[in-house]
Amino acid sequence: MTNTTTTSTYYKHHVFFCLNERPGNEACCAQHKAQEAFDYCKKTVKNLNLNGPGSVRINKAGCLDRCAGGPVLVVYPEGIWYTFVDNADIDEIVESHLINNKVVERLLIAPDVGR
Description:
By secondary structure, the protein is an alpha+beta fold.
């Protein structure tokens, strides 16, 4: 029997939104309407028929440990980290990155931004 390994991804793009909420006034994505952005992105991707196996999956995540850049989302398998302000930014990420495979440079989080 031959052991062959193939590399494939179940989703073309897998998007994780940090929805973590920290107590008090500690920085967190929830303070920046991350849940609303997640809901909007999930609805947009579904309305464009981009969701499902072989295409796009939008997921909730707990803390992604990049709080200082919040709100944040990360797109895999590329590992591209974005911040966003409003639905127009989400639309740009969907159109440019998820549909046209082009990174939205202006929304990237600097590699050294952490918690």
